[in-house]
Write a sequence for this structure.
């Protein structure tokens, strides 16, 4: 049994803070040479929440993560910086990363509102969670006030809100499947797969029964231990465009029921979250979303849930070659802990009502944790979601999240008997507005970083 | 008459006068060479790679091609297509005489110790034909079953209508002989050999192998594996992870000693025979993403590995670790700085992070890389062949449904 050092691991790694519906993500820069990130971190670290259940009432949560540039700003030595993974060193907006992630055309970092080459550099991400609107505003003002007082700058801010039950802006129940981290105090749902802690927390055995590589300090301090790596992506969702397209392509054309069915086949679940594999013909309503399901035996040809549906690509379970068991084992080596939340006003009503443009900016702040960007997040993105050859398909990408790289739009095949239907010319529904790769230090590492940064602050020119 | 696929490998020294700036000159002509190679209809994949000598200067130029049919015909077509680049490409080799590619190849071609084929018996022409059959059928179906007046029709009727429409396109349909032996007579001999010779020999040799392993662990120089920020990775990364296909080149010195050299040859011989006699239809180790791959032993005690594979590097290496680590450990455990093994075939390539870093350490950049069908995966090639095969003759309703399900 893995013993996790809960009092050292930041809370966001093991918990989604479902009881705190309001979130604020503050992207901070200490670019100004006069600023004092050391003083800031020395104070803040005492307020950062660990995964252990604290004595304080759980009314708010603070967690913090750093970009590679941020770690350099805190005064880490060259060799220490070089011991972090290549992906963190390069950052999400690097050309090589964009190439791997498929962040091109509409999703090109050049057009981002945060984290791109035309936006200010980000050093730290402060993640704030609270029970209600007033509490989150107060928490945010307190934290940001201190940052500003020490010369830091808020480069960008996003707000997220959990709705009950959690539906993403297209109207589908989201956040249903999470892996259960071995040793986590969170009770395990029976439908959750157990994944070794080392897939998400450095310093523990991973799915290969090895210890993940961990960045090291020149003084022998294990910087990575009890830390994790965080992916942040702000995904803007064109809800009106999505539902208009579904109504246009539905048969009969414009029929609300048929449009919902079509949209569900792109997602792989009904709006309630019920999996199509178990309910191919109708939405049974809430309650079925947590049912166990698999693809290999239940739907080998994809006639219930299309082979290219979003949920298959995001988590192929047992469907990949050469066998169900091999597939489960391989898939278990590419899992993510998701901590994302929707932003923007809720879109409600019938497909036709949702299809009416209201000009609102809405979407999902996608946040994921993993121990290896390249083997987990980037792999899922590249080899499953964006792969035109996924599961023997010929030329189509994820119908929900992929950027459309071909000006003719993209295909989506719906297998059926006697012959498949292929939707052509689907537009892009989700646009990446920005993002970054972050390191989530342990509480001990935060103290170590704070002392480094304080020395660096003191050494700055008068 | 079935078409056979062959491997051609040349690794030869570069004339000293041609060494300077050769990599840049090769890079500069890559796209022109790719365009020119389209006319070589026998060519599946090809690459030119520079191998650095101990002094860090490009001292050898390696060429591989994977081709259909007779080598003489292939070389003639290559020489014609690459005539404008002859001096740069072939003329960089020490001892190459202008206009005599065949003569140079006769003297310098190296045998592949193990040559893996993902879709044997399918010529380039066949693969392109099958792709066009598939695309044509897909396009016909995209016109929509309703528009074709096929709504509610049976699979047999839909199939017949599609085949009528396909008829005028000038494409080959129906079965093609891929040259698989109906009853491979040598398979049983190979199994007998494995059970009565290879396995006992391996067991007898085990204590010795363990002794070699532990001795080397003490004597080998400390591993100097590539760092996360090594600049050598940038150009390699820029080239790879193309959407569909990629070429991996890997060059590593052998571990010293006669034992390692022997074991290496035996393992590669074993894999080659297993491939020919058991996996002759093109599946080895559960990996379905390799078009062609080969190991070639060079005379300076180094081993070259060329692979033409589908998908990302991370996915390909992940397949190695997840599905084929025993074979790969058996081969590469004989080479420098390979992750620690147990009894030569365990450990090693199953150590995910260490194996990937080791692979990166000895990976080298392709200078020129060519594929005749860049947008096709191995599974596309095989599936397209099944679609083409089923695109002639009569079928029952069940057969027609199964055939339509491939589209």
């Amino acid at each position: 049994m893995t013993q996790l050092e809960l009092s050292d691991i930041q809370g966001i790694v093991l918990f989604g803070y479902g009881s705190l519906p309001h979130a604020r993500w503050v992207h901070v820069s200490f670019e100004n040479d006069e600023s004092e990130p050391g003083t800031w971190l020395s104070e803040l670290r005492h307020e950062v929440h660990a995964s252990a259940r604290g004595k304080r009432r759980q009314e708010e949560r603070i967690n913090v993560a750093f970009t590679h540039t941020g770690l350099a700003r805190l005064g880490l030595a060259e060799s220490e910086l070089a011991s972090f993974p290549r992906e963190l060193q390069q950052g999400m907006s690097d050309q090589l990363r964009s190439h791997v992630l498929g962040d091109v055309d509409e999703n090109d970092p050049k057009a981002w509102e945060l984290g791109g080459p035309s936006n200010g550099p980000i050093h730290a991400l402060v993640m704030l969670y609270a029970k209600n609107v007033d509490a989150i505003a107060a928490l945010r003002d307190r934290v940001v006030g201190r940052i500003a007082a020490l010369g830091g700058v808020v480069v960008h801010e996003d707000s997220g809100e959990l709705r009950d039950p959690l539906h993403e802006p297209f109207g589908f129940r989201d956040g249903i499947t999470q892996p259960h981290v071995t040793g986590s105090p969170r009770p395990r749902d029976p439908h959750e797969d157990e994944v070794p802690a080392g897939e998400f927390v450095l310093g523990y055995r991973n799915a290969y029964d090895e210890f993940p590589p961990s960045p090291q300090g020149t003084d022998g301090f294990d910087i990575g231990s009890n830390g994790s790596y965080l992916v942040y992506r702000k995904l803007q969702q064109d809800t009106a465009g999505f539902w208009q397209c579904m109504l246009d392509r539905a048969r009969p054309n414009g029929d609300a029921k048929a449009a919902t069915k079509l949209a569900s086949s792109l997602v792989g679940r009904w709006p309630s979250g019920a999996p199509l594999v178990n309910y191919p013909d109708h939405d049974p309503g809430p309650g079925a979303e947590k049912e166990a399901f698999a693809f290999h035996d239940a739907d080998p040809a994809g006639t219930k849930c299309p082979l290219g549906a979003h949920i298959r690509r995001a988590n192929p379970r047992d469907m990949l070659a050469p066998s169900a068991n091999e597939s489960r084992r391989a898939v278990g080596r590419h899992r993510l802990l998701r901590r994302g939340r929707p932003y923007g006003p809720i879109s409600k009503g019938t497909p036709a009502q949702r299809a009416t443009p209201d000009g609102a900016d809405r979407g999902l702040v996608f946040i994921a944790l993993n121990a290896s960007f390249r083997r987990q997040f980037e792999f899922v993105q590249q080899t499953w979601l964006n792969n035109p050859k996924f599961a023997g398909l010929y030329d189509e990408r994820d119908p929900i999240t992929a950027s459309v790289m071909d000006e003719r739009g993209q295909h989506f095949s719906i297998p059926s008997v006697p012959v498949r239907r292929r939707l052509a010319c689907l537009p892009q529904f989700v646009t990446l507005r920005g993002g970054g790769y972050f390191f989530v230090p342990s509480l001990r590492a935060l103290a170590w970083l704070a002392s480094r940064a304080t020395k660096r602050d003191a050494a700055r020119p008068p | 008459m079935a078409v056979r696929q062959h491997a051609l490998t040349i690794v030869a020294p570069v004339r000293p006068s041609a060494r300077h700036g050769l990599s840049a000159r090769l890079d500069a002509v890559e796209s022109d060479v790719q365009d020119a190679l389209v006319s070589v209809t026998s060519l599946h994949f090809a690459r030119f790679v520079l191998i650095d000598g101990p002094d860090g200067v490009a001292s050898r130029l390696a060429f591989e091609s994977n081709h259909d049919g007779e080598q003489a015909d292939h070389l003639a077509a290559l020489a014609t297509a690459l005539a404008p680049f002859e001096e740069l490409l072939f003329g960089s080799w020490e001892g190459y005489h202008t206009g005599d590619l065949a003569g140079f190849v006769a003297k310098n071609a190296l045998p592949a110790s193990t040559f893996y084929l993902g879709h044997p018996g399918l010529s380039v022409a066949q693969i392109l034909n099958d792709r066009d059959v598939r695309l044509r059928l897909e396009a016909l179906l995209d016109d929509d079953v309703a528009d074709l007046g096929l709504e509610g029709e049976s699979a047999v009727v839909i199939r017949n209508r599609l085949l009528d429409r396909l008829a005028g396109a000038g494409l080959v349909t129906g079965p093609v002989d891929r040259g698989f032996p109906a009853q491979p007579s040598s398979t049983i001999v190979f199994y007998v050999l494995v059970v009565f010779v290879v396995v006992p020999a391996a067991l007898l040799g085990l204590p010795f192998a363990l002794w070699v392993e532990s001795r080397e662990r003490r004597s080998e120089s400390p591993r100097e594996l590539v760092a996360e920020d090594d600049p050598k990775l940038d150009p390699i990364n820029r080239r790879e992870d193309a959407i569909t296909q990629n070429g991996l080149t890997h060059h590593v010195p052998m571990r010293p000693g006669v034992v390692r050299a022997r074991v290496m040859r035996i393992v590669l011989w074993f894999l080659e025979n297993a491939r020919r006699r058991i996996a002759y239809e093109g599946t080895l180790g559960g990996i379905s993403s390799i078009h062609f791959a080969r190991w070639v032993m060079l005379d300076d005690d180094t081993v070259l590995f060329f692979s033409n594979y589908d998908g990302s590097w991370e996915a390909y290496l992940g397949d190695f670790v997840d599905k084929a680590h025993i074979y790969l450990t058996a081969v590469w455990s004989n080479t420098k700085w390979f992750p620690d093994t147990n009894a030569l075939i365990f450990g090693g390539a199953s150590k995910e992070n260490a194996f990937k870093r080791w692979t990166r350490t000895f990976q080298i950049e392709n200078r020129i890389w060519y594929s005749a069908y860049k947008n096709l995966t191995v599974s596309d090639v095989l599936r397209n062949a099944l679609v083409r095969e089923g695109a002639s003759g009569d079928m029952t309703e069940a057969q027609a449904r199964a055939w339509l399900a491939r589209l």
